[in-house]
Structure formats: C-alpha cells, structure tokens
Amino acid sequence: MTKKKGKANVRNQRQKGGGHKLLLQKVRTWLKWLAGLTAGIGLTLALVFIGVWAVGIETDNWFPLNRLEVKGQRYTEASELYETFRNIEKRGFFSMDMQQTEAVITQLPWVKSVQLRKVWPETLNLQLIEHQPLAFWGDGGVVSKQGQVFYPNELPAKKWVKLNGPENIASELTELLQQYQAQLAQKELFVRSIELTDRGAINLTLDDGVEVKLGNYKVAERLERFISQFDNVRQYKDESLAYVDLRYQNGLVAAWGSNSAGNLNGNSNR
Question: Is the full-model pTM beyond 0.90?
C-alpha cells in the first residue's frame, strides 16, 4: 500500500508541474501576441504619417498647434505674441515651418531672438531673448544696450534716459551716455537726456533740469571743465541753475532761473 501511495503522489506532482508550464506558455504566447499587435499599430501609424508627408497631402489642420508656452518674456505683450502666432498660415504639428515661424516672431519689436520647440500634441514652446533696453529713443523708440533702435507699439512707463539723434550713430550715443554718466556720478549728477543736433553738437539735460551745452569740439574736455566748475557755478547765485554753456575756449556761460547769465572767463569757440 505504501508503494502505491508514493507512486500516486509523484504522478500528481508531475501533473501539477505540467499545469504550471502550460500556464506559463499561454501567458508568454499572449504577451507575444500583444507585443506584436502594439508594434503593428505603431508601424501602421508611422507608415500613415510618412505616407501623408511623402505624397504632400494637405496637413495644415492635422494636429494643429493651438497652445503657446513662453519663457523669457518681460516686455513683449502676450496678446501680441499670440496674434502673431495665429496669423501663421501653416500651424500643424508636422506642417509648421520652424525657420519661417522664428523669422516672423523675431519681427516683433522687443524680440531679439527666439528658440522654438514643438511639444506633442498641440504645444509650441517659445524661449524668448528680448532686447535689453538702455534708453528711450526720440519720441517713440527704444535703444538697446547694443545700440539697436526699435519702436514698440506702446512704450513702457519707465524713467529711462532719452537719446535723440540720427539712428546710424545710435551705438555711439549709447557709449557716450554710459561714459558721461560715469563721469557725472563724481558730483552725484545724472543724465536725463542726450541730444545730438543736426550740426553735430551735444546737449545734455541733467535730472534736475539743468541743460549742459557741450558743442561739437573738444567735448570730453568741456565736460571735465563742467564737472570741475560745477560747485562754483551752482553756488554763484541762490537761484536754481538753468543752463551751462561750455562752447568756449576756456570758460563758460551760465544762466539761472531769472534768465540772467554770467560769463565766467569765457571766450567763444563754438
């Protein structure tokens, strides 16, 4: 009896082991079938997209890019960006011309450059690099720290210095602004505006409204003369100083609030 029971137990264990193997084989077969189905669907979709692209079927409205994600934006208006984007004719995920889109966006006044990246299925990511403003230019423009003049649709409400002159020398004026401001800081004076006249003469207006006429000859030397004589000129009268004219060989002419002028050792050499 003992031997028969032992043989029966061995037979049962073999049957159980065979059942596990059969189950594993079924699972493996099902997984292979599922992997094959997934690969087949992926390949079919890829072939469809490649075929659409290859034969040139109109895909402008296939998977349109309708969402913008913008980084680096400070002065550029969001509405202006979106309107510009909406006016691009081909905005499909596959049909959008990235170089053309980049060129269109960089035409916006504040945009110096932009990097674009598509994010499936409907997002366009924009990384903006804007002009770094240094001063206002003329009546409606802005000049960047690199000396580039541009004209925004609306000027920001900032207390920036104002520069005025021919646009082809904007970079020179930006350099002069920074140079003059560094020199005037010795007397805690600050530039409000710089104007280059048609005759090439330079006029400064300081933060307190004093106009400084430097002319177009030995300008750097005249500015140094103004700085060295400023305390004496300011204390010459109790009235507020209106302007200082340094277009003279040695001295200067100053005027105060009463419009009375004082000639401090000046010989004309404008």
Answer: no
